[in-house]
Design brief:
By secondary structure, this protein is α+β, with helices and mostly antiparallel strands. Helix content is 60%, strand content 10%. The two termini are 67 Å apart.
Length: 403
């Protein structure tokens, strides 16, 4: 199968044509480095000069696609040119081939050629000077340095600058990609956080509203309807207040009236009282010291969502909420570990024939995410006749991510 050679670059075609035409012009007007046929010239005929010139011009077509082969063939053509009357254009094109071999060649050849040409420059100056016993022999080394070492060194410098520029460009692209990835992850994390907050704010109050509105519509008793409407109004007002607080946090516009602070564990009693007003038999046992703000918010939301689920799904009976300090999950991370806050909520578990209010299942997901963000554990499920929600939230140093 025939091997198709890559097409030469259009600039290389221009260089080859320019060199060939320039050499033809100098040959036509009779200009050359060696006008007389001295003893070193084996082929004194003027037309022979055109052979190395044409070969070198052909090598220029491969200066980017086959730089190694081009410089090898060009070296042979230059050696042949030295045995003729010579052409300046052949020498100039050879210097370009040497430059291109370092610039476009493999990394190994790019490192090797400057050293090889440097060694040849030294040898070309020292050996003739020693053999001829005259300082004029050093001019041979100077000629080799001008023709080979100088273009090779120039190509090495240009290649290093190009590689440094390319590396800088790649680093900039990687930095931009990492920044975009971080931004996307931050947006996703913020959306997940807001989804948890919105669910916890809305689900509790709307569940109570749905349950009591059902009771008001199904029971033909003025007193029952009045009580249901009172509970509905209380949950509506509280839900609106929570929504305003969350919207104020989102806006954060520096208004004269800043939004209210996030809920704390001191509000658990009010949360339990509201659940009692919605018909739950809630017992609260909160034994804890001051805990970090992220842990405090996560524990509050887990209790809030657990009471909401109990309101929607639990069978009649007592609901117990317990908070206590305990050991952190997993092996100790350091000697001064502050332990963990254990949250436990139990409610009667049994057949009800369906939930009292519809649910999406996002509550358990949100509670599990809150615990995971703090490096804690979460579990929820039936244990005999009760449904148990258990979360262990490491206290750490209080610098965790807010849940």
């Amino acid at each position: 199968m025939a091997v198709r050679l890559p097409r030469p670059h259009r600039d290389d075609v221009r260089i080859a044509l320019g060199g060939l035409l320039g050499g033809l012009l100098l040959w036509a007007i009779g200009l050359g480095p060696r006008e007389s046929a001295d003893g070193l010239v084996l082929w004194p005929q003027r037309w022979v000069v055109m052979v190395p010139l044409a070969v070198t011009a052909g090598c220029e077509l491969m200066r980017r696609t086959r730089p190694g082969a081009a410089v090898l063939i060009g070296t042979a053509a230059l050696a042949a040119d030295t045995l003729t009357r010579g052409s300046v254009v052949t020498v100039v094109m050879f210097t370009d081939l040497m430059y291109a071999a370092v610039l476009y060649g493999t990394p190994a050849s790019a490192r090797r050629l400057p050293w090889v040409t440097g060694l040849l420059t030294v040898i070309g100056g020292v050996v003739p000077a020693a053999l001829w016993r005259t300082p004029q022999g050093l001019l041979v080394g100077v000629g080799v340095g001008v023709v080979a070492l100088a273009p090779a060194s120039t190509g090495w410098v240009v290649r290093n600058h190009r590689e440094a520029a390319e590396a800088a460009r790649l680093r900039a692209e990687q930095t931009a990609l990492l920044a975009e990835t971080d931004r996307t992850q931050a947006v996703v994390a913020e959306r997940a956080r807001m989804a948890r907050e919105l669910h916890d704010l809305v689900a509790n109050h709307l569940s109570a509203i749905a349950i009591h509105s059902t009771a008001a519509l199904s029971i033909d008793d003025p007193e029952t309807s009045r009580h249901a409407l009172t509970v509905i109004r209380e949950n509506s007002v509280e839900g609106l207040a929570e929504m305003r607080r969350l919207i104020g946090v989102l806006r954060d516009s520096g208004d004269e009236h800043p939004p209210a602070a996030a809920p704390t564990l001191d509000g658990l009693e009010a949360l339990a009282e509201a659940a009692r007003g919605n018909g739950l038999e809630v017992t609260l046992d909160a034994r804890h010291d001051k805990v970090p703000t992220p842990v405090e918010l996560a524990a509050y939301r887990i209790v809030q969502e657990s009471l909401t689920n109990a309101l929607k799904h639990a069978a009649p009976g007592p609901v117990t909420v317990t908070l206590a300090r305990g050991a952190p999950p997993g092996p100790p991370r350091h000697s001064d570990d502050d332990g963990a806050l254990e949250v436990r909520v139990t409610s009667p578990y049994g057949h009800r024939g369906g939930p009292r209010a519809p649910g999406s299942g996002a509550g358990l997901i949100g509670m599990r995410e809150r615990a995971a963000l703090l490096g804690g554990t979460f579990a929820a499920g039936p244990e005999g006749a009760v449904w148990t929600v258990r979360a262990t939230l490491p206290l750490g140093d209080g610098e965790g991510e807010p849940a």
